[in-house]
Amino acid sequence: MNKKILAITNNIIERSKATRAAYLKKIEAQKSQTVHRANLSCGNLAHGFAACGKEDKQILRGLNHSDIAIVSAYNDMLSAHQPYEAYPKIIKQAIRDTGGVAQFAGGVPAMCDGVTQGQPGMDLSLMSRDVIAMSTAIALSHNMFDGAVILGICDKIVPGLLIATMTFGHLPTVFIPAGPMPSGIPNKEKARVRQQFAKGEIGVEELLEAESASYHSPGTCTFFGTANSNQLVVEVMGLHLPGASFVSPNTQLREELTKAASRQVTRLTQQSGNYMPAGKMIDERSIVNAIVALLATGGSTNLTMHIIAFAKAAGIIVNFQDFNDLSDAVPLITRIYPNGSADVNHFQQAGGMALLFKELLGAGLLHEDVETICGRGLTQYTKTPEIKDGELVWLDTFDQSGDPAVIATTEKPFKADGGLKVLKGNLGVSVMKTSSLRDGSLIIKAPVVVFEDQHELDIAFNAGELNRDFIAVVRFQGPKARGMPELHKLTPPLGVLQDKGFKVALVTDGRMSGASGKVPAAIHLCPEALDGGLIAKVRNGDMITLNGETGELILDVDETVLEERVSSKFQVNGHHEGMGRELFGFMRRSLSSAETGACSLFDH
């Protein structure tokens, strides 16, 4: 085992000793020695199976077969989740074949960040994660269930489902993915067309044609943003079947993996004699494995907050510095857009998760001896699922990369580190994704241009006011101010200016898209402007030094000058009303800082 990773893991274990012990005691108290429905009164139980068929009712009246909850984030608005429409029927039959029953326990809301980017609804995106966690808790609160299968993929959905999974950590739980859509136009081409539109070289019709050729069918968007980063993290933690993450929808292999995953949860229940609850299965080593894999692949910066949040739900305390230190120890071994030109389908064809596991395990970068839904040890995840003679089997098919431009080796990586840097200085602490940056763009010192809305920057760009070196400070975007929306509209104009040869960067207490990385960006800045952050005192023309090599983020203004300045006030300007935002004031006010997960569900 890599000594640095082992030391970081031990630090997390020591830091989490009290909270983890309290968590394990809690889930131990919640387990049942028999089926959970044995604790219900006759009236409770009658309500619980009133709508079931005769055969399922008979099984549920007995106390020797499991009842499995299905929790789904299905809706037609998310291409990644649309395939889930057919899953409950498949899952119910697969579990019935084992002698048990599956009941659809609840659906959770699932918004598409691709639809809401730059729109008022994006202000609800991060908060939807906590709503999803609470919705899942309501679904599982009936105490009918001995295990759960969870259907979710995209940005805030999986983290919310994971928070709930850890909260109901006494239940064995299996996540079932749906897979990516086929490759459309290359992601690099899509980015080029967006920049053409930003420069006024093409119109709306041409832009819509390109976007529609990229997002074109059921399945996950194919770039390596938050959705696909989620799938990678869930599999590395052992909550997916081996190799399940990136198998396309509506294929025989996908359906057989869904059936197998459904059967697998019944092998982990108290009644199986092989009880493995999710909260015990996921430990500090599992969380470190998730971060290592995220860094080795250049995944979404959104996971820096999400992993912190769902780890805390399991009594495990992780912080930004852990990500920084692990990044120093982990090489970047994949090139998937925005890290490169390949998409997740190309990654899958080059060896996918099986080869990634082989490389990371071979270099001692993952804890191998962890629990998974398939038993102890990650070595079984180095095999690839296939249909052979009509049966689902796992084969050892990749000894080396099918495309070295997509998956490299740990001996000859694309980058010596994991491409994530924590920046610290008088402005506070933030994270910076370096894996996608061009050579020479890690260090920038330039005058500030202050904005308090991403649309303001777009207006200034279109007016030709930004043709120079500058650092854009976009503030009052943090959890308490706006709910921390993604600032996706900043990428095309800043990218155009960068291509013109100007040195540009971004500093914000908000988030960027999970697929961002081209422009140097210090994001998730803590403390945020509305919470006493120095970013509220920044003025146009101030100098900021952003250094992605040394990890510094410095506002170069004399302390005496800063002491005399009055912090700018947050101008609500309707940002808390419309599209349901007026319903979420209580949640905005209780959100923690980005470094503690930007979460409203725990004491901080």
UniProtKB/TrEMBL annotation:
UniProt: [4Fe-4S] cluster binding residues: C154, C221
Pathway annotation: Carbohydrate metabolism; Entner-Doudoroff pathway
E.C. number: 4.2.1.12
Gene Ontology MF terms: 4 iron, 4 sulfur cluster binding; metal ion binding; phosphogluconate dehydratase activity
Matching SUPFAM superfamilies: IlvD/EDD N-terminal domain-like, LeuD/IlvD-like
Record domain Dihydroxy-acid/6-phosphogluconate dehydratase C-terminal: where: 406-598
Domain Dihydroxy-acid/6-phosphogluconate dehydratase N-terminal: start-end pairs: 68-379
PROSITE patterns with a match to the protein in the record: ILVD_EDD_1, ILVD_EDD_2
Requisite cofactors: [4Fe-4S] cluster
UniProt keyword annotations, A-Z: 4Fe-4S, Carbohydrate metabolism, Gluconate utilization, Iron, Iron-sulfur, Lyase, Metal-binding
Catalytic activity: 6-phospho-D-gluconate = 2-dehydro-3-deoxy-6-phospho-D-gluconate + H2O
InterPro entries: 6-phosphgluc_deHydtase, Dihydro-acid_dehy_C, DiOHA_6PGluconate_deHydtase_CS, ILV_EDD_C, ILV_EDD_N, IlvD/EDD_N
Family: Belongs to the IlvD/Edd family.
NCBIfam families in the cross-refs: edd
Entry function: Catalyzes the dehydration of 6-phospho-D-gluconate to 2-dehydro-3-deoxy-6-phospho-D-gluconate.
Protein name (database record): Phosphogluconate dehydratase
Organism of origin: Thalassotalea piscium
